Amino acid sequence: MGKRKEQASVPVLIGILEKNEAVSSKLLMTSLSSITGKNFYSRNEWLNWYKLNSK
């Protein structure tokens, strides 16, 4: 998903991060970084960023 850089993928990736900490967060965060241009290093940073910017 990250290579395609589709903004519509962001809610899907964030949803996976929210529901399952055991899933490979590193891969999800790399995809989010590629799509958004943001460079957050933790799951919580991504979740907080999304909550603040998705409204």
TrEMBL record:
Instruction: Tell me which species this is from.
Output: Leptospira santarosai str. CBC1416
Q: What is the recorded name of this protein? A: Uncharacterized protein
Q: Which domain of life is it from?
A: Bacteria
